[in-house]
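Interim report to the steering committee. The following record documents the input for Glycerate kinase (382 residues).
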Amino acid sequence: MKIVIAPDSFKESLSAIEVANIIKNGFLNVYPQAEYFLIPVADGGEGTVDAMVDALNGNKITVSITDPLGEKGFAFYGISGDGQTAVIEMASASGLERVPVSKRDAKITTSYGTGELIKDALDKGCKKFIIGIGGSATNDGGAGMLQALGVKLLNKYGNQIGYGGISLSELDKIDISEIDHRIKDCDFEVACDVTNPLTGENGASFIFGPQKGASLADVHLLDKNLKHFAQIIKNSFNIDIESTPGTGAAGGMGAALLAFMNAKLKPGIEIITETLNLDRLISNADLVITGEGRLDYQSINGKVPVGVARIAQKYQKPVIAIVGSLGDKAETIYPYGINAMFSILSKVATLSEVLEPAVARANLFQTSTNIALTLKLGNTLK
């Protein structure tokens, strides 16, 4: 029997590779002769680097970067074992969690650090980039990232504009003559699970600006500046990014990646499962096991268990989801290819108790063992 185990992490508790190994150990007690294929998965957000590094036999790299407030710090990204693929979480360098609540100001935060991660990966010879752009602290249209990669964003006096979305109002000319020449030989895939345009009432500033510290007045200013940025890009390069779905992601980072790196904006789960060749593995499996911290009706929107199940459904493979908890209307997920769902909770407990890694490990192991025993019992009753 071939069993593919492809879970996401149990956030704030267990990593995806830990979850996969614990499930395997639970099943080994019952099916010691089975072949197990462990594929930790993520959806492009937090945990993507860890999951991809584990699956691609890669390494995590720590780099000195410029944080969203323009101060020096450190961030990480991943490189595949063959040295060809870089996996970057924008949040690592330019994320909201890097900015204390009292200092959050979407007018001044910069994406420069994300550009520094890309540059370091270019220096190490990477040709393919997978970039997750969730959780950003920025609203600069990716301007900082572009500056880190050699693009000159010039004011009317021929000087570089400053950091942050507020500085885009000064932009007069974009000079790409010194953009890192290696970019043209690379493929960029962007894990983008939102469809917001760059500007307007559903754009980057109005929808995401407030959570990054933007007041109502700031939102209007930032939106105006992104419109100005988009117009200069259109005039200079004949690229219209203002209304393209996904360009409003991460404060407009999606727009910059699309316009200057010819990036493909795709749902994160699609990028990750394609990179991991999950389709091929599942097509040859007898059973697929997936999971994450919580399943509910919202999980159909790009979450790992449903993404895995959709692949399995193509090949009519049975899927079991083992999760931390089952939330509202979790039963609505069944039509998407999951055949059975199990929560690992065995008794009433507080959230802090169940998130404790030792408790989560024990609950997950016991639940996995019980599921395996039930499957074996079912086979004897045929």
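The chain has two domains: 2-41+277-380, 48-268. The committee is asked to note this result when reviewing the revised timeline.
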